[in-house]
Amino acid sequence: MTVEECVTKEYKCILNSANSKTHFISSNQCLNEWDDKCEDSPKYQHVFYQFTCSCITDTTNELIEIASSQWEKLRNLYGNKRIYSCSYNLLQTLIDCVKQNENFKVSIYSLNGDWETDGTFIAKFYNQIYCNTLSDNFQRLLDILNCLDNTQEYWVSGYQERFSSTVKQHFLLCGLLENEFKEEGTFWYHLPIEEALAFQDKAPHHLNLRHLEETHADQVNSVWPHRQPGSLEYVKLLIQCFDSVGVFDEGNNLIAWCLVAPLGCLSLLQVIDSHKRQGLGQLAVRYMSSLLARKGLEVTAPVVFNNIASRSLFEKMGFKVVDKKI
Asked: Which CATH code, of 2.10.109.10, 3.20.20.110, 3.40.630.30, 3.40.50.970, is assigned to 63-183?
């Protein structure tokens, strides 16, 4: 049974703390089946619950789509927030994707058509929801989240730590119990553009660097610590729509890689076990950092709190923590 086939008013919440996302999906008797599928991913933390949904009915607010011709103006509102999650980089990355591919499916919404006042928006890509506001009062952010159709599958992803209580309140209003809401996030690392531009990103003569292809998605997903049902399609979309780099040996074998997430940050950095401690992770990071910097984007990377190895790598390369992302 797929998630799409689950149509009753019982709900399941999966809190993917390792991948820093809050997931809210509708479900019925597929709880045990989903649980079985997750058993092979020990770092995938999940919580199941069932309850009768008390749907949010708000006739005073509605989502109004922001025309793509206005996205640059919305992006510019976040010009002095460039190093933070769900800000300038996210919007610029989505703008670039739409320009390159007219069939790229992404929508950005305002609350009641008003986004110029305080920059409040949500962006929908795949089943991901990204949100932000420039206001110090988060009521409008809560209102726009409450306009989402909570009978559909979605993840609220990448939000800044300061919005944690607002996102929590949204899910509590959806029917989630207080003791069932758990979240763990990531350190949000940043490297200034000028430092990224100074990186030497050329590969040794026996290695080849190039953009990943969709055929590599299986390998990338198979060793992703946070993989889950449906994550293969997500990885394919990342490869299709965003920048990436693969490190290939002389036999054309993929041995390391780094992708860019919709947030416009480095993501899914991985080196296969047989080639670790050879500097390949740093090579991939240098290459992707330079690529983002040449596009005028701040270089950022989320790292799970307990991933000491990755934290050490980024810190040795000059990245510094500027925020936490949930």
From this structure: 3.40.630.30
